[in-house]
Amino acid sequence: MPYASVEPQLAVALDALCKRWKITKLEEFDSRYAGFPADLYLMATTAPDANWGLLEHSQAELELGELLGKTIELVSRRGVETNPLAPKVMLETARPFYG
Known about the structure:
Elements: H1 8-20, E1 23-28, E2 40-46, H2 54-68, E3 72-76, H3 77-82, H4 89-92, E4 95-98
Parallel strand pairs: 2-3
Antiparallel strand pairs: 1-2, 1-4
Helix pairs in contact: 1-2
């Protein structure tokens, strides 16, 4: 279920969206480590059976933004963990948002 950083009226809709996209956890991270300007920076952990490509990633990002009323930059936790060029401080400073 969503954490306190999500308004109560959005909690049910966010939970449904995350289940549909097989997002098991969302974490907020510091914008200093982001590649694009946005209102909210989120790192997603997906279920092992989530088969996301670029189109799915982009669609999930758009839907999260519409739901939350913000511009979102969504990155994959797995991508950050496995990319040697990704700033590891993103993982160290991530704060729970959902899951």
